[in-house]
Design a protein that fits this description.
Blueprint (H helix, E strand, L loop, with lengths): L2 H21 L4 H15 L5 H12 L5 H44 L3 H29 L3 H15 L4 H16 L6 H8 L17 H14 L7 H12 L5 H13 L7 H33 L3 H4 L3 H29 L3 H16 L4 H18 L1
Helix pairs in contact: 1-4, 2-4, 3-4, 4-12, 5-11, 5-14, 5-15, 5-16, 6-7, 6-14, 7-14, 9-12, 10-14, 11-12
Length: 381
């Protein structure tokens, strides 16, 4: 490719994903739909088949699906520079918006009006997560085996078992069950033996440090499969339970901000980083959670379309996906108990869920509606 052609393609990639980073609301599924319209229908950079291959590829690696789609598309359009430009331009506007919101939250969050604002928003966030669970669960549960693994993960997660252990144990269990006939009973026992060692992994509260913040988000970005809402399980386990750096209320606020702002839901990490370490913490958290996606896309782009056809890899992915939803369900239950505190919050959550399922209302409007209810309650008090 000529240097002039490469520059033109890089400019096209940057312009597209900067715009999407500012305007793409609605979560990963909506982002992918918008990208399909832009790069397949309007610009014809890819065929439908090639786009679907990329969607399948992002499901096989950890990390935020819509961000990885931006990275993949950038790579196919403009090579290695496009890989970086596509991802960075999609993340950067959303990160800056969340950074401004985080500053306002720290500056004004203690005001009574802010507390009432969040009172109305949090039930809507719970409803959005339950709706995502419902939609994704219908695709992830493919039989009795995956259903049983999902339920078991919910129970064990609520009981305190380490979420990463549950994620990989769920994937391994479904893979072995799906390929039982390819294994002898003795071999199956050897594979299952490590699962007997799963236990509750805990960690004492730890003083804040920038390096630990970065490494924790790097770990989350390296192992998190499934919807951006699965992020809840990992954030709560690390920052609320293990490290003790956040409260459940702050965690829900972070998820609400990630949902109501455009771009990746994973920019909740930017919000958390700012709460814990100011602007430097926000940058470290954002870098940590998104960096693995760039690495995984770079390593896997040529290989992943073939991997899904493997019965072993495909069933492993099925197990990891359903285990991710199990983690998500467990944390939703725990956070719901803290957010649905009276008849009004329960009614807001139920109305939001029905609006999402029955009338397909955009989640951003529901969050704004919840905020309006909270402010109205503040005015009436």
């Amino acid at each position: 490719m000529k240097a002039s052609d490469l520059r033109q393609r890089l400019a096209e990639v940057a312009k597209l994903f900067l715009r999407l980073g500012v305007t793409a609301f609605g979560g990963p599924a909506a982002h992918i739909g918008i990208m399909h319209d832009e790069v397949v229908k309007r610009r014809q950079w890819l065929t439908d088949e090639a786009f679907l291959d990329l969607v399948g590829a992002t499901n096989l690696i950890p990390g935020p699906n819509s961000t990885e789609m931006a990275i993949h598309i950038g790579f196919l359009r403009a090579g290695w520079p496009g890989l970086v430009i596509g991802g960075v331009c999609f993340i950067l506007p959303a990160m800056l918006i969340v950074l401004i919101v985080a500053w306002a939250y720290v500056r004004f969050g203690a005001r009574p009006e802010a507390a009432w604002l969040l009172y109305g928003i949090k039930p809507v966030v719970i409803a959005i997560i339950v709706q995502a669970l419902w939609t994704l669960g219908r695709k992830a549960v493919k039989g009795w085996t995956t259903a049983a693994v999902g339920i078991l993960v919910v129970v064990l997660c609520i009981g305190g078992v380490n979420e990463i252990a549950l994620l990989f144990a769920g994937g391994l269990a479904v893979m072995l069950a799906a390929n039982y006939r390819r294994l002898g009973k003795r071999s199956l026992g050897v594979f299952l033996l490590p699962l007997g060692g799963l236990g509750v992994l805990s960690q004492a509260a730890t003083p804040y440090s920038p390096s630990l913040l970065f490494l924790t988000f790097l770990k989350i970005g390296s192992v998190l499969y499934g919807s951006g809402y699965v992020l809840l399980a990992f954030l709560r386990a690390d920052f609320v339970v293990h490290l003790g750096w956040l409260t459940d209320q702050q965690l829900l606020d972070a998820v609400a901000i990630g949902q109501v702002t455009p771009g990746p839901v994973f920019t909740a990490a930017t919000f958390i980083g700012f709460l814990l370490g100011g602007t430097a913490g926000a940058l470290l958290a954002t870098l940590g959670i998104f960096l693995p996606s760039f690495v995984f896309v770079a390593l896997s782009n040529p290989l992943l379309p073939r991997v899904r056809r493997s019965p072993w890899a495909g069933s492993l992915l099925d197990g990891v996906n359903v285990a991710s939803l199990g983690l998500m369900a467990a944390v939703t239950w725990q956070l719901g108990r803290a957010s649905l505190i009276d008849p009004l919050t329960i009614a807001i959550a139920l109305a939001s869920f029905v609006s999402l399922i029955r009338f397909k209302v955009n989640s951003t409007w529901l969050i704004l509606g919840g905020a309006a209810i909270g402010l109205l309650m503040a005015a009436l008090r």
